[in-house]
UniProtKB/TrEMBL annotation:
A GO molecular-function descriptor: metal ion binding
InterPro entries in alphabetical order: DIOX_N, IPNS-like_FE2OG_OXY, IPNS-like_sf, Oxoglu/Fe-dep_dioxygenase_dom
Species lineage: Eukaryota, Viridiplantae, Streptophyta, Embryophyta, Tracheophyta
Keywords: Iron, Metal-binding, Oxidoreductase
Highest taxon of source: Eukaryota
Domain Fe2OG dioxygenase: start-end pairs: 214-314
Segments passing through the bilayer: none
Family: Belongs to the iron/ascorbate-dependent oxidoreductase family.
Provenance organism: Protea cynaroides
Protein name according to UniProt: Fe2OG dioxygenase domain-containing protein
């Protein structure tokens, strides 16, 4: 296999440290004109079967849900709630259009992240950090030293609510659009929380009253073109740690969800945003809603850019405890999970890294 070498001449920890110390991420490798990807990115042989599961064997498609008219037309709203319910209970993934965020804002957000990643290396290095207390940080692979294999992507993370950073803490290339996008996607998030509450058969403010709507973090990924995309991934198989994620992706594609043991492509749709249920919402819905495994393929073309808004407090101090919603339980439907705080859940999720068993199993009764 290309680039593997022998066990005796490979010091993985040393190679990881050298990569991290460069503070230039995957883009730095591409800029240095690497012909073969470093061994830290190459998937182990046992993962190759899973990597190559044929997505063409299934005709299943992720639904695209039109939110037009849900605030004015009660009949239309019921239709949308039913579609959201069906999607949340099956794959946990759907796309939304007519969501209220102007297309210009979406495009400017993608452009801002491209500008950040393609600016002068020395300027970008100032943001490189693994300090989880920093509200704005850039790095490559949050789980670099925990995962079996590194992923072919760089990431800018910005904690935007409930306590946003000072504007000057945000990188200049994406500062203004990051603040605007944060405001717009938060408004959409509030709408989605209401639809999801209704989809659970609860009052539309139920999830909001539980405090689920208070925090969000914007995690923007940059996937440079990969010289050997068949040997690595953009993001390993994982589920998200939050209540739900709103994902803006560019036109390149590569996002897939695992459905009935087949990888299903989630193709970019002009103006659409991808919504996926996270682990915390599966936990409080007592498995009614599904937090599905998904991944991103590496690609010869690029860079691919995506912007994920995670609705949760992330690692911000929060002592509120979450367990299965009592209104969803009965003698016949007992609680499946023990209570946890968001902080505890995300800390455990991050400690194990991507891949492997879902973090939810750690909290299952």
């Amino acid at each position: 296999m290309v680039g593997l070498g022998s066990v005796s001449d490979y010091d993985r920890r040393k190679e990881l440290q050298e990569f991290d110390d460069s503070k230039t991420g995957v883009k730095g490798l591409v800029d240095s004109k690497v012909g073969n990807i470093p061994r830290i990115f190459i998937r182990p042989p046992e993962e190759f079967h899973e990597m190559t599961l044929d997505s063409n064997q299934t005709h299943f498609q992720i639904p695209v849900i039109d939110l037009q008219g849900i605030h004015e037309d009660s009949v239309r709203r019921v239709e949308v709630v039913n579609r959201v319910k069906e999607a949340a209970e099956t794959t946990g993934f759907f796309q939304v259009v007519n969501h209220g965020i102007p297309l210009t804002v979406l495009e400017q957000m993608l452009q801002g992240i491209r500008r950040f990643n393609e600016q002068e290396t020395q300027v970008k290095k100032q943001y490189y950090s693994r300090d989880i207390t920093r509200k704005v940080r850039f790095n490559s692979n949050f789980d670099l030293f925990k995962s079996k294999t590194a992923n072919w992507r760089d990431t800018l993370l910005c904690v935007m609510a409930p306590h946003p950073p000072n504007p000057e803490e945000l990188p200049l290339p994406c500062r203004e659009i990051m603040m605007e996008y944060s405001k717009q996607v938060n408004n959409l998030g509030l709408t989605l929380f209401k639809l999801l509450s209704e989809a659970l058969g609860l009052n539309h403010n139920h999830l909001g009253d539980m405090g689920c709507t208070e925090g969000h973090v914007i995690i923007s990924h940059y996937y440079p073109a990969c010289p050997e995309p068949d040997l690595t991934l953009g993001i390993s198989k994982h589920s998200d740690s939050d209540f739900f994620t709103v994902l803006l992706q560019d036109s390149i594609g590569g996002l897939q969800v695992l459905h009935q043991n087949q990888w299903v492509d989630i193709p970019p749709v002009d103006g659409a945003l991808v919504i996926n249920i996270g682990d915390l919402l599966q936990l409080i819905s007592n498995d009614r809603f599904k937090s599905s495994q998904h991944r991103v393929l590496a690609n010869y073309v690029g860079p691919r850019v995506s912007v994920a808004c995670f609705f949760c407090m992330h690692l911000q101090p929060c002592e509120r405890k979450y367990g299965p919603i009592k209104e969803l339980l009965s003698e016949d439907i007992p609680a499946l999970y023990r209570e946890t705080t968001e902080t505890q859940f995300v800390a455990y999720y991050n400690s194990k890294g991507l891949g492997g068993q879902s973090a939810l199993e750690h909290f299952r009764l």
